[in-house]
Amino acid sequence: FLMERKTHVKINRKEVMLAKLRKSCSCTPKKLKNFVMDFLPVLRWLPKYQCKEYIWGDVMSGLVIGIILVPQAIAYSLLAGLKPIYSLYTSFFANIIYFLMGTSRHVSVGIFSLISLMVGQVVDRELLLAGFDLNDDVPSGLGDGSLQNDSQSNTTAFNLTIAGMNAECGKECYAIGIATALTFVAGVYQVLMGIFRLGFVSMYLSESVLDGFATGASLTILTAQVKYLIGIKIPRSQGHGMLVITWINIFRNISQANLCDVITSAICIMVLVTAKELGDRYKRKLKFPLPTELVVIVVATLVSHYGKLNEVYASSVSGAIPTGFIPPKVPHFNLMLRVAVDALPLAIVSFVFTVSLSEMCAKKYAYTIRANQEMFAVGFCNIIPSFFHSFATSAALAKTLVKTSTGCQTQVSGVISAMVVLLVLLFLAPLFYSLQKCVLACIIIVSLRGALRKFRDVPARYHVNKVDTLVWVVTMSASALISTEIGLLVGIVFSMLCIIVRTQRPRTALLGQIQDTSFYEDDLEYENLSSVPKVKIFRFEAPLYYANRNYFLKSLYRLTNLDPNLEAARRKKYEKKEKQHLKKGGDTTANGLGIGDTTLQLVPKQIDFQALVVDCSSISFLDTTGVNTLKEILKDYKDLNISVLLACCNPSVIDSLKRGGYFGKDFGSMQEMLFYSIHNAVRFAKDQK
């Protein structure tokens, strides 16, 4: 039987587009109000804030995150190649802006190790191109922490024209100029992606790609911190293969290791790892995480200051961190042109991590987020702070998990965290002058535990899906051994190639009937299936399109043990031979048969079926090549008196076949060529003569 299709009303797309355009361009007080409320979601939820119910959890989580944020911000400045003050600015402004614009109640937005690494790589490259020495250290004589003295904190300053900047600009000035220009452009990309609703780009970053990218970047971060751990002076490697080059330089200079830094690093790592393990083991009993990083930083700073580790043992320290805010400055346009390409992967990674964490929290706590608004939020978390000497931000998994575990209810906790950072910015920053860089490196390395533990999951990942494991390995290797940006691109391209290859060479099978049922399954996978006499049932488990057309035909011919083209050629050759023999005379053929028996001889013994049923249940779509392929096998098998029947086609495939003329002009033979189940097709084939 043939089911009757519904008649769909044709939509005039032009009129629909014009109507949407008129609606979007109209401006009414109600629409303006909704626009403002959507753009600043805080205006919707803050008036409904349940103070008695929420305030304690928000204050508690805000204080804990603030306490964690300060040491991490100072530490991650090493990754970004910038002074610690800029990391504190970044953490402060990001929390305030996301409080106003974010739709997630629990995400912690701020400084993030992977983003800091990507910023640092661009900053280092541009500093080298400008002729600066990446290994200049902060002079030990500057310690009062004032903004006025901060301008002297560069060991070299030049009257130079770099990218159109005609000014006396030292290393630090140029570095933060690059970072803010990069951040501004990344934010603009994210806002444009939000305007044009390009959030679908994140779909191409699979879980395997993101995990591999994070793990590979973590290896790069770990490598970059080793020189601080052991206190050696080696050039900061740039470009492709940075990880290998850095390790070669480390082993070449290992004899110059600073014993004071080595001992300090060993003690700090032991304390941090022990505290983290204990925190993970007893996290259900603890009301909030132990502020281990802050305790380590305070104790290490006191020991370094009173033990004069910098003067006596030449241990490298953080140096002066000024108090207050530097006057805002517009990012330089010419620098934006230099970093426009670098900003694209930064924008995508920042957005993807933020939206992924937002969706995870929303699902866990039963509320919804707006992915497009999240793109606007993280975009403006980059654009606005770039005027205030800040660099790129993103949501951070570790701080988000801490935030949810300490009772966070809304983004009011982000404001509390920002106030903690502000307190440090205004009053406490100079106290960290004597803090050793090796302590900051220890904090960074221990924070990578989660990403590095992904190596333990490789066997389980391989057991679940071998292709995804291969994608993870390729992405991780490229991110670590080449560069983070190239690694991300390699991961995306390789994962897409894997999908293409899997559709190019999908599973194919001949089906057998499950005894005493109307169901059919793969004859090689299941026992006790019975073959259907005179009928072959072929399944192709992928869309049929130009890339897998040849594989479809080869698999069909191999499984049915019949290539109709070769068989047709063999018959023509035989007929030609018979005609030549008859011309010479004789009542018998070359095989000694009578002329009447020639027709029987033409039918090959290997053709043991009279009908071919193609199971189309796994064919999601057909392109023009796919339709022509089915038309080709229909014609070729018809020449051998074998009928081709299609079963389980979806409406999209049926429409493609109709448009391609598979059923003829008037679709008259459609009922004899198309069936809604394999069993119906088999029954029809059996009833044929």
TrEMBL record:
<feature type="transmembrane region" description="Helical">
    <location>
        <begin position="212"/>
        <end position="230"/>
    </location>
</feature>
<keyword id="KW-1133">Transmembrane helix</keyword>
<dbReference type="GO" id="GO:0008271">
    <property type="term" value="F:secondary active sulfate transmembrane transporter activity"/>
</dbReference>
<keyword id="KW-0472">Membrane</keyword>
<keyword id="KW-1003">Cell membrane</keyword>
<feature type="transmembrane region" description="Helical">
    <location>
        <begin position="54"/>
        <end position="76"/>
    </location>
</feature>
<feature type="transmembrane region" description="Helical">
    <location>
        <begin position="96"/>
        <end position="119"/>
    </location>
</feature>
<keyword id="KW-0325">Glycoprotein</keyword>
<comment type="similarity">
    <text>Belongs to the SLC26A/SulP transporter (TC 2.A.53) family.</text>
</comment>
<keyword id="KW-0597">Phosphoprotein</keyword>
<dbReference type="GO" id="GO:0016324">
    <property type="term" value="C:apical plasma membrane"/>
</dbReference>
<keyword id="KW-0812">Transmembrane</keyword>
<dbReference type="InterPro" id="IPR001902">
    <property type="entry name" value="SLC26A/SulP_fam"/>
</dbReference>
<feature type="transmembrane region" description="Helical">
    <location>
        <begin position="472"/>
        <end position="501"/>
    </location>
</feature>
<dbReference type="InterPro" id="IPR036513">
    <property type="entry name" value="STAS_dom_sf"/>
</dbReference>
<protein>
    <recommendedName>
        <fullName>Sulfate transporter</fullName>
    </recommendedName>
</protein>
<dbReference type="Pfam" id="PF00916">
    <property type="entry name" value="Sulfate_transp"/>
</dbReference>
<feature type="transmembrane region" description="Helical">
    <location>
        <begin position="335"/>
        <end position="355"/>
    </location>
</feature>
<dbReference type="InterPro" id="IPR002645">
    <property type="entry name" value="STAS_dom"/>
</dbReference>
<feature type="domain" description="STAS">
    <location>
        <begin position="525"/>
        <end position="685"/>
    </location>
</feature>
<dbReference type="InterPro" id="IPR011547">
    <property type="entry name" value="SLC26A/SulP_dom"/>
</dbReference>
<keyword id="KW-0813">Transport</keyword>
<feature type="transmembrane region" description="Helical">
    <location>
        <begin position="173"/>
        <end position="192"/>
    </location>
</feature>
<feature type="transmembrane region" description="Helical">
    <location>
        <begin position="376"/>
        <end position="398"/>
    </location>
</feature>
<feature type="transmembrane region" description="Helical">
    <location>
        <begin position="410"/>
        <end position="428"/>
    </location>
</feature>
<dbReference type="InterPro" id="IPR018045">
    <property type="entry name" value="S04_transporter_CS"/>
</dbReference>
<dbReference type="Pfam" id="PF01740">
    <property type="entry name" value="STAS"/>
</dbReference>
